[in-house]
Amino acid sequence: MKDVDSINVLKYEAVIGLEVHAQMLTDTKIFCGCSTKFGSEPNTQTCPVCIGMPGVLPVLNKKALEFTIKTGLAMNCKIPALSRFARKNYFYPDLPKGYQISQYELPICEHGYIEIVVNGEIKTIGITRIHMEEDAGKNIHEGRGNYSFVDLNRAGVPLMEIVSEPDIRSPEEAVEYMKKLRTILRYLGVCDGNMEQGSLRCDANVSVRLVEQKEFGVKTEVKNLNSFKFVGKALEYEIRRQIKVLEDGGKVIQETRLWDSERGITESMRTKEEAHDYRYFPEPDLVPIMVQQNWIDEIRASLPELPDIKRKRFVLEYGLPEHNADLLTSEKSIAEHFEEAVKQGADPITLSNWYITVVFKHLKEQGKEINETLLRPNHLSRLSELVAVGAVSGTMAKTTVIYEIIQTGKMPDEIIKEKGLSQISDSGEIEKAIDDVIAKHPKEVERFKAGEEKLIGFFVGQVMKMTKGKANPQMVNELLKKKLS
Ligand code: ADP
Ligand code: ZN
Ligand code: MG
Question: Were 213 and a residue from 209, 389, 426, 458 both cysteine, which residue would form a disulfide, CB within 3.0 to 4.6 Å?
Fold first, then answer.
């Protein structure tokens, strides 16, 4: 695609709404007792109900209902007095019944919202609805010669579909929204949130309109977005594509498009089907759902402290910037780790920066969660103390000590001793290094004395280099100024 003029891009605004499918962490399927375990031999976790034999009856898994209500409450939804299932009819080999049991006009959760933080600002995104449905099976085309096979282990695995209002205005907001959904689902323990393995799947609806325009433009739906990165990239691409179509005098057509991550483009897959194509009708084999208020109250009382509330509390209680608080509360285990270290005396702001700039990086590199590493809250509270008393520099703590703790589980005192990382606060030793540096750089000294004061940074750098980063930077600064004046 030839790119559009970036001036023209500014005339437009994107409108985005996401439809997210989350596989629930129940032990059994939504309408039968088969296991939901991932990765078993094909068709070993099936029964007459989930392979769609005639004459058998589905029975709703109460846990799936509870998980969905829990999620709805966590996302500030209303739970209507009456809800029911509907048949969504379509024909595909991975759907043996010829219809998917889903919900249509009476979903279990409606009218909610969640908060995201973008550029340090809080924004509210509406949740239109959350409904329950069954997953389909999986077609297997690879490695079987001219045949395709169907694995029905996944057929009947409980899904929640979470539909957002078209409140999202940029790819960045869409990614933040996805991250927040994942965070909430993981706090609740209702979904593992693994996008690569498909337990969290996202379809993105997107349109563009002129900035001053009120009505929404025609939207397309982009599928196959199995990572946060792809959600952002696909939307960026699709927005520019639509702008280009309009700028060239064309019209965006309503259709379903597929994200091709290898080529970095979206491609038309099919024209969008309308609701009437699915011949939705109420599911006659399942009774309507009427949830009693006391059960809703019980579920509400069982909710953990949720990320948005935790984030606000972290801002108030620890004085963290909104952005830091948002990142620290993105995983419950991190938030708890952080609070424990603070309780043991660590400075909250320094500490929050350690998690964000150092710990997260190592967790990502090692593909581990914090509780799977050797890093304990008391390591960090002790390190914070050592930095505060000047036993080790903040830089050394960040660049070396934390990493060593994660690798070995040793206390920071031991690591500092073993690796000789103690901060040099002995003025004699620092002066010696300064004298060396001054002797080696007569030209710079002359320039400095002639008024080029910004060279102080150069001298500090040289001294730090000479002391392998161990000199107390404040003392280096002071002593340098004294010697150079
Ligand atoms: P459909 O009838 O195509 O299923 P819905 O109104 O049910 O569309 O909305 C599906 C998703 O698309 C929702 O997440 C909604 O927020 C989003 N959406 C609706 N209209 C637009 C639009 N014009 N541009 C972008 N997203 C939209
Ligand atoms: Zn079954
Ligand atoms: Mg719809």
Answer: 209
> Closest ligand 1 atom to the C-alpha of 217?
23
Can you give the pTM of this predicted structure?
0.86
Average pLDDT over residues 35-42: 93
Distance (Å, whole) CA 408 – CA 402: 10
Ligand that comes closest to the CA of residue 280: 3
* Mean confidence (pLDDT) of the chain: 92
Task: Give me the amino acid identity at 52.
Answer: G
Work out whether the CA dihedral 232, 233, 239, 240 comes out positive or negative: positive
Strand partners of residue 258: 223, 267
Ligand number, closest to the Cα atom of 163: 1
Asked if residues 133 and 101 have their Cβ atoms less than 8 Å apart, the reply is yes
Domains of the chain: 4-295 (no CATH), 305-419 (no CATH), 427-484 (1.10.10.410)
Can you state the angle between helices 377-388 and 332-343, rounded to 10 degrees?
50
Across 278-291, b (16+ Cβ under 10 Å) vs e yields: bebeebeebeebeb
- Please work out whether the CB of residue 74 comes within 6 Å of at least one atom of ligand 1: no
